[in-house]
Amino acid sequence: MAEKLNQTASGGPGEGQLKTGVDFLSRALKMFFGILAAFIIVALGWFLVFGGSFIVDTTTESVIVLQFGKFKQECKEGWHWFLPSPVNRIVRIPINKQEITSMAFMPMDAEFLYYQGVKADGTGPSDVNEKLVPGVDGYVLLGNNSILHCEWVMTYRVTDPQKFYLTCLSTDTTENVSGSDDASKGQTASLGTARAMLQDLLDDVVITASAVQNLETTYYDRAKYEQTVKQALVERIAAMDFGITLENLTLKIAAPPIITIPSFQELLLSETDAERVVEEARTYSVEQENLAKSESAKILADAGAYKLRVVKEVAADASYFDEIYAQYSKNKKATLVSLFSDTLAEAIAPVQDKFIVDVKGGGQSVLWLKVNQEPLQQRADRAPAGAGGGSAKEE
After folding, report:
1. pTM for this entry
2. Which residues lie closer than 8 Å to 212 by C-beta, 6 or more apart?
3. Which of 105, 104, 100, 94 is nearest to 196 (CA)?
4. How many CB atoms lie within 10 A of CB 192?
């Protein structure tokens, strides 16, 4: 075509202007192709240098590199570079805490349970639907055939991204970073599949663990019930080897069917009253026990004092007997007279009126002497000032 243009340009009167245009077009095309080649070279260089590089945020993620679809390396921190797709594929695995809430065992209208049988607007369960509808309302069946509604919150963390990706994620559960179309920045794993699988695992553990429980150990002892399910879930996760660690499991609510809540509240009140009565009885028992111990200690102390007193009295009597016996051995008659006098004095001491009667034969007169002592108060009144006391005799 250029030759035809040259021939046309050389064969006509306007050949100079046509030649100038062709030269300009040729230079423009050469410049365009040069710029295009430079752009391609720069783009290719940038793609090779920066297209396969990425930075790992150690606080929220861990990056695994797949080479032609197979696991190659795990990157936990810093800046890294790999040949970009389709050779290598970058997948970012979230390692921060993830939370799963299971409401599989809650009724359709769960607001009644949160407000203890009455909604915030005052509506009661009898105003809506008193029946539990299987297939619509969720519940867990206990070992004694009781029904329980419960809500669980599971918190976990990915500790082995490779195992987690291979066991819990599929190849198409990824999305570009920050929702952009730039695949060179890597793809963040979507946890939808993993969440569904872990929630099913949690529900299965709750059903299995609850099958051997009863209403008393689940509704009235929630902490023990929660710990039982948590221990079973930890063991199941360890056996499945998902590459995750259970951080916490919380029993957010545990309640019987909605219509039975008032009866359970009455039962709780009666149990509270029973506990109060038992506590009062226990307090009374302690008081009586302390009182009995105090009285027992007093009786024992009195008995000990009485024992000591009796022993001392017996010891004194024994000492007195030994002394009398020694005197008796030396002078029997004098000792007997002394003992007779002491005994006679003790015998007549309580008698009010005492007389000495001297009886003589031969018709002589009899002398009667009253020897009982006057009361001390009468003697003091009758005696002159400064006089001393003494015995009074009457004839």
Report:
1. 0.54
2. 143
3. 100
4. 11
